[in-house]
Amino acid sequence: MPLHKRIDEDAEIEVNPMCIREMSAEVPRFRIPPRGMLPSTALQVVRDELILDGNARLNLATFVTTWMEPEAERLMAECFDKNMIDKDEYPQTAELERRCVNILSNLWHAPDGSDAPGCSTTGSSEGCMLGGMALLWRWRARRRAAGLDVSKPNLVMGANVQVCWKKFCRYWQVEPRLVPMEPGRLHLRGAEAAAQCDENTIGVVAIMGSTMDGSYEPVAGISAALDQLAASGGPDVQVHVDAASGGFVAPFIQPGLVWDFRVPRVASINASGHKYGLVYPGVGWIVWRDSGSLPEDLVFRVNYLGGDMPTFALNFSRPGAQVAAQYYNFLRLGFEGYRKVQQTCQDVAMYLSGEIAKIGAFELLTDGSELPVFAYKIRDDVTGYNVFDVSERLRMRGWQVPAYTFPENLTGTAVMRIVVRNGFSKDMAGMLLDDLRQQVALLDAHPHSHVPLAAQRAGFAH
Ligand SMILES: Cc1ncc(COP(=O)(O)O)c(C=O)c1O
Question: Which atom from ligand 1 is nearest to the alpha carbon of 126?
Answer without folding.
Answer: 11
